[in-house]
Amino acid sequence: MNIPAPDETPDTGPGFDLRAYLRGSWSVDRTLLDRSTGTSGTFTGVVRFTANDDGGLLWREDGTARWTSVGGAPFTGPASREYLLQPADTPDVLDVYFPDGRPFHRMGFAGEANQDVHWCDPDTYRVTYRFLGPDECGYRWDVTGPAKNQLLESVLHRLAAGPDEAPDAAGDVAPYAAPDARRAE
Prior knowledge:
Blueprint: H1 18-22, E1 24-34, E2 39-51, E3 57-67, E4 75-87, E5 93-97, E6 103-108, E7 115-120, E8 123-133, E9 136-144, E10 149-158, H2 179-184
Antiparallel strand pairs: 1-2, 1-10, 2-3, 3-4, 4-5, 5-6, 7-8, 8-9, 9-10
């Protein structure tokens, strides 16, 4: 799974609403590579982006991690994580926070917003987000430093809306309609 270089990112266009685009459920397939040991793994699961009362989103990820180990038994088990997404200065960007409210990074698909850096002592985390279409996106974390040397690549595919994911007044649940498609309706 290789996510194309950032300069190949399709233009999401003016008026792109990242919150509306993400809202709903997505499957996630992630490859994990520890470059220092050559070990690799995968994560497969579901990501849910649900609306918060403050205009942001809760990012909840649940699935199964599989990891090969050096000289030991492979690991397979449940894994999960959460982030808070808050509106930024434009609708095509969201600010990502840890659940305890600490800032993490900025998320977007166009221009400089598709890349960000987070320093977590003693390592540097670089993320690149990719818009791959109305129902597919991805991101790559390149982690370097004295403690870690990892590459994590994720691809998300939109899942059909379930009974607990009815559209809100803005109709911002899957399937997402790109800004151009909405103007044509």
